[in-house]
Amino acid sequence: MTIFTCSCQDFSIVTNPASIWDSFDRDTQGWKGSAGSITSFRVKGGNPGGYVLAADDSTGTWYFVAPTRIVSKMKGGYGKIFSFDLEQSATDYQYDADDIILKAGAVTLTYNTAQNPDTTWTSYRVKLDELSGWKKANEPVSKTDLVYVMANLSEVRIRGEFRFGADRCGIDNVSVH
Is residue 93 helix, strand or coil? Predict the structure, then answer.
């Protein structure tokens, strides 16, 4: 099985499906939407197969929240690539917010992708290092901070809310490799 991924306009091929921790082919695998969303599993329409879908149930920015087993697997992932696919229902009325949030106790790191997802599957690949644009309190993160957070990781969130107004977002193929 070959999965095609895209990072902005560059294309690459991931040929090791074993590196995909959550492909959502049977259920949500423990992923859920944060407050402000309603989460469900879809058996078809993913990239490929099933995927997790969440939709607004109130105002505010909501996130896909990783289950504890994924947070545990990501610990010590400094220098690796964090990958996932997103799609959203509409691309009008977009706004910016933190796209990825990593927490270790009171320390929070954030990352903003170069583009919001399209209405078709958009793949993201983010390196877990200090040179990739991670921030701590809106300042560039140090290697020490990123190594600390990755070693003590307690929460992983991926943004699912990208537009003002009612919408939905899907997530698929979450991995670190």
Answer: coil
